[in-house]
Write a structure and sequence with these properties.
Blueprint: H1 2-23, E1 31-32, E2 35-42, H2 51-58, H3 61-64, E3 68-73, H4 77-85, E4 91-95, H5 97-103, E5 109-114, E6 121-126, E7 142-145, H6 151-161, E8 171-174, H7 179-186, E9 192-195, H8 199-206, E10 209-215, H9 218-225, E11 232-237, H10 238-243, H11 245-263, H12 267-273, H13 283-293, H14 305-318, H15 338-345
Helix pairs in contact: 2-11, 6-14, 8-13, 11-15, 12-13
Protein name: Nitrate ABC transporter substrate-binding protein
Organism: Nocardia sputorum
Family: Belongs to the bacterial solute-binding protein SsuA/TauA family.
Length: about 350
């Protein structure tokens, strides 16, 4: 009797687990009043590199395209990709390189809107360490990354790898972004680190740090990484894309409209549309951070094939996941331009 009761309890637990898992199926998109309910995780809502996500919401372009979108902030792109794989979110605004890294793990994730051709990241050096004047001087140092396995980790390995270093030649330190990054640099937790605006503007203006490598421009990116490095994108699971092409098209339309809006407005006008708390370090500094980084956005949402190839070349050298399977990575399965091209061909409304 006790044994049968135990089996019954186990059966109930398994049923509950299957039900819960089914609710998080990435192919299932909830509807309310006939409108898709989309949850998108962003690898740092306040980061200028991911500004199009919140700006799209602030401009009302999600609503205009008949979709409801909830944005969730998460400082680590590695954590965001996990949320996508578990079906807890339907999309991620993060770095394109995660799609290649995940294919190496036999997961199909695809960029559907490619918002930038460069990382928008900066390698900052603490003002307390005047001896670091080149990437070669990072040997033996503590280098800050968002988290291990994040895009800042990949980029750090690529930068140092260009001068013959491996991860055995320095220490990677997980410092997150924003205030945790600032605290790490100001309290000797790291000697240098990879971060974005507005943190860059804040630290440089205060004199707490200086720029060693600038990946906010095409010229700086090509010089440091040997080519373009497409970064900010909307990526989704292939299963979701295949199951809901019309919803994906609406998302693409909303983001493309935002990218086009950015091209025709000033940093001051862009800043004015963003939540006021994003300018907590000062309005002028926030406008400056947008001005310094806004050129990274491509204006059309299209992937440049040469950029995708360069990302694969870099990860094929420096990612422990990609390197062993580099030759079987199919770039055509890591991004699609179909939806953006359809949006760009459609007549303006």
């Amino acid at each position: 009797m006790r044994y049968r009761k135990h089996l019954a309890l186990v059966a109930v637990a398994i049923a509950a687990l299957l039900t819960a898992t089914g609710c998080r199926d990435s192919r299932t998109i909830p509807m309310a009043d006939g409108r898709p309910q989309i949850t998108i995780m962003v690898g740092g809502l306040e980061k200028v590199i991911y500004l199009p996500a919140m700006l799209t919401q602030q401009l009302g372009f999600f609503e205009r395209n008949d979709i409801d979108v909830k944005l969730l902030g998460e400082q680590s792109g590695a954590t965001a990709e996990t949320a996508l794989l578990t079906g807890d979110v339907q999309g991620v605004v993060g770095f394109y390189d995660h799609t290649i890294d995940l294919q190496a793990k036999d997961q199909c994730i695809r960029s559907v809107v490619q918002m930038s051709d460069v990382p928008g990241e900066v390698e900052l050096v603490s003002r307390a360490d005047p001896d670091i004047t080149s990437v070669a001087d990072l040997r033996g140092r503590k280098l800050g990354v968002t988290s291990l396995g994040s895009s800042t980790d990949f980029l750090t390995q690529a930068l140092t790898g260009q001068v013959g270093m491996s991860t055995a030649d320095y220490t990677r330190v997980k410092v997150g972004a924003g205030q945790t990054f600032i605290a790490g640099m100001n309290h000797d937790g790291i000697d240098a680190g990879m971060t974005t605006d507005p943190t860059v503007a804040q630290m440089v203006n205060s004199g707490d740090a200086r720029i060693l490598v600038d990946l906010r421009t095409e010229a700086g990116t090509r010089a440091a990484l040997g080519g373009l490095y497409p970064a900010t994108s909307l990526y989704m699971s292939c299963a979701t894309i295949d199951a809901h092409p019309e919803i994906v098209r609406k998302l693409a339309a909303a983001f493309v409209q935002t990218l086009q809006w950015i091209q025709t407005h000033t940093p001051e006008e862009i800043a004015a549309k963003m939540p006021p708390q994003y300018a907590s370090a000062g309005k002028d500094l926030y406008v400056q951070s947008i001005r310094d980084s806004i050129g990274m956005f491509n204006g059309d949402g299209l992937m440049k094939p040469e950029g995708a190839q360069n990302v694969l070349d870099i990860l094929g050298k420096y990612s422990r996941n990609v390197r062993p399977v580099r030759d079987r990575i199919d770039l055509s399965k890591t991004y699609t331009t179909q939806f953006v091209e359809e949006v760009l061909r459609a007549p303006r409304q």
